[in-house]
Design a protein that fits this description.
single chain, 365 residues, Rossmann fold, Dihydrodipicolinate Reductase, domain 2, 2 domains, 9-stranded mixed β-sheet, 9 helices
Length: 365
């Protein structure tokens, strides 16, 4: 590319603040424009970032823009991604890749047709937390992995989010909102999934916005609010996953992996660099593992920076659309399995992304 990857942001809602805060630490990237259906919000973000505010169409037509960071709501991910690809732009999208595997297939087809790259959050798996856990497993620190648990729960985003309505619409809910972090971590550590079973529930508890301009507004719930699943990995490991908007309090760990000679305590995959803990039969007490792999001090957007470097060097990017598609198919299968009381075999698979060595930057590796 002969310089930084010039990109534009489409969608400058709440999540965009985390990306903008990371820009000073995102090597190899240059923000040139922002767009949003809310023109006032776009102008405010553009002023804060010292770039130009544009309409979506104008941003996609701008010859300076080489890639689009797609931060729209999940229901718009596929449409925006396909438009950007046909406009000649690489795409990095927030999770999930799309609302359904059928929509995501259109993204993959457009990428193949245009020869452009598509990446997808979460890129938290590239930080020292999940990468160190992966290396511990690959090095046999707890023997042969046998099983794993992944757990995330809250009473619901209406407790804190000023506009939580979309979390209860199709394409969201606890599974589609938080599942990509946890399932991406499980696939990164333990490999692809071949079969899924599950159980789902939708509680009758009324959801009411508790803060912001919509405070007091009742929320229509169109998603399952408590989801439990069993994932059968191709490696033979069985993972149990629970994602819920119906839990007021819990002490269940975020992720644990159980091996033939110990247990690995994996940090919250919604974060980049929390510590890994380990307990083994030869050292039967919990101890913290020093980071041994991963982008240090990483933050939102490192997946885009990794994609930019991959374009420059010709290697595969790690937070790939193929990984995101596999995770999306897993989540779709979980909901179908839970609704129809079935075991569902997956049609997709994915190679584990290349590990991230400790101490490198996305623009140098």
């Amino acid at each position: 590319m002969g310089g930084p990857l010039k990109f534009g942001v489409i969608g400058v809602g709440k999540i965009s603040a985390q990306y903008f805060a990371s820009l000073p630490s995102l090597p190899g990237l240059e923000l040139v424009a922002v767009a949003d259906l809310d023109e006032d919000r776009a102008r405010q973000a553009a002023s804060e970032q010292n770039v130009e505010a544009m309409s979506v169409s104008r941003l996609l037509d701008d010859g300076r823009v080489q890639a689009v960071l797609n931060l729209t709501i999940p229901a718009a991910h596929a449409e925006v991604a396909v438009r950007a690809l046909h406009a000649g732009k690489h795409v990095y999208t927030e999770k999930p890749l799309a609302v359904t595997p059928a929509e995501a297939t259109k993204i993959l087809a457009a990428a193949k047709e245009t020869g452009l790259r598509v990446g997808s959050a979460p890129d938290t798996v590239l930080g020292t937390g999940i990468q160190t856990a992966r290396q511990q497993l690959d090095d046999g620190a707890i023997g042969q992995p046998v099983g794993a648990t992944a757990f995330w729960a809250s009473p619901g985003h209406e407790r804190w989010h000023p506009a939580p309505q979309f979390y209860y619409q199709q394409g969201a809910g606890p599974l589609y909102d938080m599942g990509p972090y946890y399932i991406s971590a499980l696939v990164t550590m333990l490999g692809p999934v071949v079969r899924v079973s599950g159980a789902v529930a939708r509680s009758a508890r009324e959801r009411i916005v508790e803060s912001g301009p919509s405070s007091g507004e009742r929320i229509a719930v169109d998603v399952d609010t408590h989801v439990t699943a069993i994932l059968e990995h191709a490696s033979g490991v069985a993972s149990t996953v629970t994602m819920s908007f119906d839990v007021w309090a819990s002490v269940v760990p975020n992720i644990e992996v159980y091996g033939t000679s110990g247990t690995l305590g994996v940090p919250d995959p919604n974060h980049f660099s929390d510590p890994v803990r380990i307990w083994t039969k030869d050292d039967p007490e919990w101890r913290t593992v020093a980071p041994t792999a991963g982008y240090a001090d990483a933050s939102r957007g490192y997946g885009l920076a990794d994609l930019g470097r991959a374009i420059e060097t010709g290697r595969p990017h790690r937070a790939s659309a193929q990984l995101a598609f596999h995770v999306l198919e897993i989540m779709d299968a979980i909901l179908k399995a839970g609704s129809h009381h079935q075991v569902i075999s997956l049609t997709s698979t994915v190679e584990r992304p290349e590990p991230v060595p400790l101490g490198v930057l996305p623009n140098t590796w």
